[in-house]
Amino acid sequence: MAGSRFDSPFSPQFDPRSVTIRSSSPPAEFPELNSKSFSFASRGDRVPGRLLLPEGGEGPFPLILLAHGASGAKDAPYMDSAAGPWARRGLAVASIDFPLHGERSEAKLYSLLAAEFADPDRNRLGLADDFVRQSLADLTDALSAVCGCDEIDANRIGYAGFSLGSIIGAMFCSAEPRIRAAALALGGAGLGGASLDPTRDIARFAPRPILFVNANDDETIPREAALALSAAAAEPKQHLWFEGSHSQLPGQALKAMYQFFARHLID
Amino acid sequence: MAAAEAIEATKSDGELIDLVLGGDRDSFEILYDRYFPRVFSFLHRRLNNRADTEETVQEVFINVFSSLESFRGESPFGAWVLGVSRRTLANRFKKKRHRTVPYDSTEVLETVDMNNPVIPRSITPLEAYECTERIDQLNSMAAECLSADQLQLFEMHHIHHQSIHQIALELNKSEDAVKSNLYRARKLLLT
Which A positions 6-35 lie with beta carbon below 8 A of chain B? Predict the structure, then answer.
């Protein structure tokens, strides 16, 4: 008897047969970590990802799904700055390239997407809407792909995002029950048009804990935008502010995010 | 396979169930062999993990055995077994929710019971997004096409899920009037 498409507790569209995982080189600054490259099929796209695992132990480790910002990539230097130290301290960290980013780069389409995010009324091509759809599906399937690894504890999963990764993350986490705690850095509301509304459902993330991290001199995310996003979330929530800018989030902020996850995901 | 088992294997589900209920445990083995592939495939598609699947299959058949008396034969036995599989899987996910770490006692966040979060999985994040989009489209279409009264009725019933009875009471109208107004509103939206 065939089940309905809603029978799956995870993602109905996910095809586990499409997943490939192989060992890869860890970031140069963190040679002691174990690194794996993975990829999977998602809505017709091939999505590449990276999984960093703590040195030695077999786990299972709590998992952080870490999302990059606009024009970033799964292995951008700032992603390594977060993922490396977190993995050193016992967290597995998975990240993927969002559509049109990293290995999925497409310069022309990306410039159109960026223009649509910047001024959705004048540059409405539908790319932003499709970007959101594809990203939500990719994140859902990334969890399913990584949770198949023996080293991962599928019951202790957190989400962390930077900038666009935070905005998409707010939309993703609100409808993804596998995420037990979320830390959204450099995110805000009211940017990118109707396709990107992180405030709409974020309250549904409760009663799971959520941490917002922003910078005092963020030239991209105005203070009001950051406050609007955190205001839309329900308790339990925390909002921390650090000295820094959109491109210079201090190490203390990354440490605070780690401590947040340690409290909620590491026994 | 021994001759006796070969004969057993030709028996119908109903005959085997009667034998099991009569105390013949060997007949359950036949039912197990017969339905194992379907149950395994059903669970593996959802768990994506062989070890978890094997463990859950055993749990399913224990549940099938212990509740066999409740099978009334109103549906095929295979469908009933898959129903048991679905319920067993749902219970497994409930059980697997992990222990969480509370905040310090000085923090207000500790008041939330993180050991018992109610987080149903009904749709994926993508489906939630698409659902929101459709509701927005429907809302804007309703705002354009409907009168103020019809819009109010439409929102009460289709957006806020109030029953016809509740709406009639709240607006001091008959249920028939509410129904016919809603019918006209829906017709306008479909044209």
Answer: 6-13, 16
Is the CB of residue A1 less than 8 Å away from at least one CB of chain B?
Answer: yes
ipTM higher than the 0.85 cut: no
Assess if residue B153 is contained within a domain: yes
A64 touches A92 (CB < 8 A): yes
Counting Cβ atoms within 10 Å, is residue B101 exposed (0-12), middle (13-18) or buried (19+)?
middle
Tokens of B142: 């309703």
Residue B49 is assigned to a structural domain of this protein? yes
Chain B partners of A155 at a C-beta cutoff of 8 Å?
96-98
Q: Answer yes or no: are the C-beta atoms of B152 and B158 closer than 8 Å.
A: no
Report if residue A1 sits inside a domain: no
Q: Tell which residue, A205, A187, A207, A185, has the closest CA to residue A197.
A: A187
Domain range for A181: 16-265
Walk along chain B (191 residues) and give the pLDDT tens digit of each residue. Answer: 455 556 566 889 999 999 988 888 888 888 988 888 888 878 877 776 666 777 888 889 988 988 888 888 888 999 999 999 998 888 877 655 444 444 344 433 333 333 444 444 567 888 888 878 777 777 777 778 888 888 888 888 887 888 999 999 999 999 999 988 888 888 887 76
Q: Is A140 on the interface with B (CB under 8 A)?
A: yes
Same domain for B11 and B62? yes
Q: Which of residues 176-235 of A touch B (CB under 8 A)?
A: 176-177, 180, 194, 200-201, 206-209, 235
| Domain endpoint, select from B95, B117, B141 | B95
Tokens (6 digits) for B53: 């699947």
Tell me how many domains chain A contains.
Answer: 1
Contacts with A238 from chain B: Cβ below 8 Å? 109
Question: Domain range holding B19?
Answer: 3-95
